[in-house]
Amino acid sequence: MAKLIECVPNFSEGRNMDVINKIVAEIAATNVDGKVVKVLDVDPGEATNRTVVTFVGEPEAVVEAAFRGARMAAELIDMRQHHGAHPRSGATDVCPLIPVADITLEECAQLARALAKRMYEELGIACYCYEAAAFTPERQNLAVCRAGEYEALPNKVADPKLKPDFGPGVYNERVATAGATNVGARNFLIAVNFNLNTTSTRRAMAIAFDVREKGRKAREDGKLTGKVLKDENGEEIWIPGTLKGCKAIGWYIDEYGIAQVSMNITDINVTPLHVAFEEVCRAAAARGIRVTGAEIVGLVPKCALIDAGKYYLAKQQRSLGISEAEIIRMAVKSMGLDELKPFNPKEKVIEYMMIDEKEQAEKERLVRMTCVGFANETASESPAPGGGSISAYMGALGAALGTMVANLSSHKRGWDDRWEEFSKVAEEGQVVMNELLALVDEDTASFNKIMAVFAMPKGTPEEKAARAEAMEAATLYATQVPLRTMKTAMRAMPVLKAMAEKGNPASASDAGVGALAARAAVRGADMNVRINAAGLKNREVADALISEAAELVRQAELEENAILALVNANIDK
Question: Annotated active-site positions, please?
Answer without folding.
Answer: 86, 443
